[in-house]
Amino acid sequence: MVGLGWGRGGGAMRQRENLGLWIALAILGIVAALAYRSIDATVGMLTWVEHTHDVLRQADEVNASYARAVAVRREYIFAGDEAQLGEAPALDTRTAQAIAALRSAVADNAAQGARVEAFAELVRQRVEALDDAVRTRRAGGAVAETAETLALTNRIRVVREEFSREEQRLLAEREARTVADLRTTKATSVVGTAASFGLLLFAFGRLRSEVGLRRRSETALRASERFLDSIVENIPDMIFVKGADELRFERINRAGEQLLGLGRKDLLRKNDFDFFPADQAEFFQSRDRQTLAGRAVVDIPEEPIDTKGGPRWLHTKKVPIIDEQGVPRYLLGISEDITETRQVAAALKAAKDAAEAANQGLEAFSYSVAHDLRAPLRAIDGFGQALEEDCAGQIDEVGRSHLRRIRGAAQQMAQLIDGLLSLSRLSQGDLRRDPVDLTRIANEAAARLREAHPDRKVEVVVEDGLSAQGDAPLLAVVFDNLLGNAWKFTTKRDRPRIEVGRRAGDPATIYVRDNGVGFEQAYAHKLFGAFQRLHGSHEFEGTGIGLATVDRIVKRHGGRIWAEGEVGRGATFYFTL
Amino acid sequence: MGDKILLLVEDDPNDEALALRALRRHNVKSEIIVVRDGAEALDWLFARGSHAGRDTSLLPQAVLLDLKLPKVDGLEVLRTIRADPRTRRLPVVLLTSSKQDQDLIAGYDLGANSYVRKPVDFAHFADAVGQVGLYWLLVNEVVPAGR
Fold first, then answer.
1. What is the number of domains present in chain A?
2. Residue A496 in contact with residue A456, Cβ under 8 Å?
3. Using the beta-carbon criterion (under 8 Å), do B97 and A378 form an inter-chain contact?
4. How far is B71 from A151, CA to CA, in rounded Å?
5. CB of A215 within 8 Å of any CB in chain B?
6. A389 lies in which domain range?
7. Which candidate, A119, A133, A3, A144, places its Cα nearest to that of A63?
8. For A235-277, where are the alpha helices, taking DSSP H only?
9. Which helix (DSSP H) or strand (DSSP E) does residue A246 occupy?
């Protein structure tokens, strides 16, 4: 099954980003609050400054109206100018009003309040004294400034100056505090702006790096998609994807387009019934549904398909693609075009069948040869013998010689048939591969020869420890034939000798050497053909089958056989297995 | 005579003549019944068909059985002989044209006692009867009727 990794675990990252945002907002909030408070304080302080200026103006108003009230009276008292004396009551009222306003203005300040009260009292006393003097003057009395008057005036001035000094001091203090507040405000706004600036820069930097990262990952993703695409497109088998719901083609690769003879424009969003005969489309979709329902790969070793280019055979594997929720979403198909492979296999099978039939024909022929061809030979030989034995008295020596030749020829032919049969039988049947003791097999072959020819004295030397992997009965036939040949062709030697061993420096090669009549090296290649003989049967009897049989056995073992010889100097047969 | 019987199953008249000559020359005195195909061999052994009514208690001392026979071949005859309780222990000597014959191996697998290579020559025949334990076949005279 195949799962698609469509989600990405980013919860922790998002949480961190959120925290950063909250911290940034908190910093900006604090900065804004500080700035607001600072400005608020400054504004408060400015109000106080303004208030102080108001108080001072009010105090000036009090002084001015008081001074005017004193002046109009003194004009009358000392210059007898009565014209302005009439303003006195209004001025007094203005003074009282101004004092009342000043009193309320300094209501927050007890000390200044006390000074206002003291001032008001002193002013009352002074105005009273002046009004006395006015009355005195009107009565015709003399008026003079007294020490008492001067002292009062002095005290009024002192109080006024004290009041004014205090207000000036407050003004200075408040102005200083305002400056300090403004400085704080400035600092706060600088810090706040800097913080905003920094956060903005930071955020912008983050944004840029995030955008860059995203762009890079998108580039990498596109490159990876292109890579995967090129793989899918270049796979020489048809690759297709169908949607799980309606089994419509969602994707097809180039090999698929070529195989079906259809472009992907024609294929995509279509289903099998749009292109293929109904029975085929039904088969394809039934396998699709089986794949999706079973959620396992379905292998269809051979399925026929009618394409635009003619009928083809496919080997298809269908794979369900399951999403993270375990729901089959897509069906992936991989189809190999096995049309040619199938044709080759069919041709191969036909050839094999033909070969087997031919082989069976050969076997039947061999069987027939063995049984039918032999029967007349048996009769020739058997009745020849009967003639020899039953009618001995009626046949002279010449007749008996003819009979012997007739029988000999019949027996020779029977042997030839036997040899041919055993040779043909070698091509059939299984070859065993067991460890074989060649030394023992060679010694047994030599023993059989001694037994069959007790009159011959042949020295046979077999090297110890010769072994090979092979079919023991067949290898016995090899040694029977090779030793038999050596035995036969050393007949005319005074001291016949046969050696069996490993070739020096080449332990895989076994040799059988004799000191017999040998052969001409030029004819060495003819030794191993059936019925090939290098010696006439008048010299040495034989069928010409033995070495052909040996050759066949060695080749069936995957080995090789060859011979070296020289006329009169013996022969050596080498073979590997 | 009459109580010593050999059954020779052979379709080739030449081979039959040579076999009979060899047996006579080796002084085999038993009566030799010759049948020419596998079906007749079985008919004779189990007293069926043309041999119906024959006394089946009279078994041959041995069967000389050619492998290649018309109708029912030698191996089938052998299989039937070995399958029937009446003939299961009957000595059977196969007649073969070649000791390379693969049918010979099949014959031994089916329980043949020995084989003789055709044409029947004395050396082979002596070996075969030795293996079957029928030395008395080679005796000149009929075993005295002492029973």
1. 4
2. yes
3. yes
4. 181
5. no
6. 352-427
7. A119
8. 254-260, 264-267
9. none
